[in-house]
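From the methods appendix. Each design record in this collection lists the tokenized structure first, followed by the designed amino acid sequence. Records were kept in a plain field format so they could be parsed without special tools. The example shown here is representative of the layout used throughout.

RECORD:
FOLD TOKENS (177 positions):
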């Protein structure tokens, strides 16, 4: 199935769930950060970010739990072989369903790749901002989360950005899932 069709299918599945879901809690389960010796503050000014994400959701009665994993690898813009910083985090999001409905595995996967990731994104951005500052590096900005649009709509838009629920892996700064 083409990526744009997969995105549309995912969004349709999520649309069936979202009217019945409320977020209850967000917890940081794991955090790992490493500053490399060649990652001095001056090199940090021109850092190319490579981001990755994954998620897993499960349901127990009227409770939904999502585990969202984030990864960030920063390399020197001038020399991609020189790592500056690595950062990873796992967040757990707890949701409650307004009524008892049994979600399919496809709905749970779609919810994890779209809603859970979208809900966790601001927490991830804050983790990156504060951790990188504590490492003595200049600010690194994690891009805005965007749910990928179907290709026809993208062709009409001049924005040309493609990050979010089904991002491309071939460009630095984009998110992979």
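DESIGN:
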């Amino acid at each position: 199935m083409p990526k744009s069709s997969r995105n549309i299918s995912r969004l349709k599945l999520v649309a069936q769930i979202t009217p019945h879901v409320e977020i209850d809690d967000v917890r940081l389960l794991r955090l790992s950060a490493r500053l490399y010796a060649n990652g001095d503050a001056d090199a940090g000014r021109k850092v190319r970010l490579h981001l990755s994400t994954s998620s897993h959701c499960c349901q127990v009665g009227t409770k939904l739990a999502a585990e969202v994993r984030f990864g960030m690898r920063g390399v020197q813009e001038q020399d991609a072989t020189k790592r500056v910083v690595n950062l990873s985090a796992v967040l757990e999001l707890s949701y409650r369903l307004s009524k008892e409905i049994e979600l399919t595995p496809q709905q749970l996967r779609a919810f994890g790749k779209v809603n859970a990731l979208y809900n966790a994104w601001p927490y991830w951005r804050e983790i990156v901002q504060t951790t990188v500052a504590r490492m003595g590096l200049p600010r690194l900005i994690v891009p805005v989360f965007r749910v990928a649009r179907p290709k026809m709509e993208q062709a009409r838009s001049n924005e040309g950005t493609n990050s979010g629920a089904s991002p491309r892996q071939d460009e630095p700064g984009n998110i992979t899932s």
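APPENDIX NOTE: DSSP finds four helices and five strands in the chain.
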